[in-house]
Design a protein that fits this description.
Strand order of the largest sheet: 1-6-7-5
CATH superfamily of the largest domain: MutM-like, N-terminal
Number of domains: 2
CATH topology of the largest domain: N-terminal domain of MutM-like DNA repair proteins
Structural class: alpha+beta
Order of helices and strands: EEEEEEEEHHHHH
Low-confidence stretches: 4-8
Largest sheet: 4 strands, antiparallel
CATH class of the largest domain: Alpha Beta
Strand content: 25-35%
CATH architecture of the largest domain: Alpha-Beta Barrel
Number of helices: 5
Helix content: 10-25%
Oligomer: single chain
Radius of gyration: 19 Å
Shape: elongated
């Protein structure tokens, strides 16, 4: 694999040649590619896109070259994470992870009673992977006004918010 980035300030040497150890999704829109000793985290943000063996007319933010294929990421955030991904990332706060911990989310929410429900759902430390669409759907389905504070929610609604 030969990843390159359009960020010319980044040292590319550690990215040339290592084999991908594993690919995991940290969130719905943020895959992580694990390599020995570090990971590349890609967040697609609102407009991010990826292409497989099909380059766009603009330079990719990150390009991963393999023996016979190429994976290019556009309009996204790319971060190098030093260390092992499991030590760097709390999978219990990732809503798409099998390790999602609703009890932990509920406990953290109770410590922020003045936070608006809409802001709490977008807090990536509480609900990694939740964006505007999921936030709107959750609040609509549980019938909570976005400007309600977390402390004003009944325990039942707080439970619905995290499940």
């Amino acid at each position: 694999m030969s990843p390159t980035s359009t960020d010319s300030s980044r040292d590319r040497r550690p990215l040339t040649g290592p084999a991908v150890a594993q690919h995991r999704c940290c969130t719905r829109a943020a895959p992580a590619i694990e390599l020995p000793g570090f990971a590349i985290r890609i967040h697609l943000l609102m407009l991010g896109r990826y292409r497989i063996d099909e380059r766009k007319d603009i330079a990719p933010r990150l390009s991963l070259g393999f023996d016979n294929d190429e994976l290019d990421f556009y309009s996204c955030s790319v971060r190098l994470l030093e260390g092992e991904l499991d030590e760097l990332y709390d999978w219990r706060s990732d809503v798409m992870s099998d390790q999602w911990d609703s009890a932990q989310a509920r406990a953290r929410l109770r410590k922020m009673p003045d936070t608006l429900a809409c802001d709490a759902l977008l807090d990536q430390n509480l609900f990694a992977g939740v964006g505007n669409i999921i936030k709107n759907e959750v609040l609509y389905r549980i019938r909570v006004h976005p400007l309600s504070t977390v402390g004003a929610l009944l325990l039942r609604k707080l439970g619905e918010l995290v499940t």
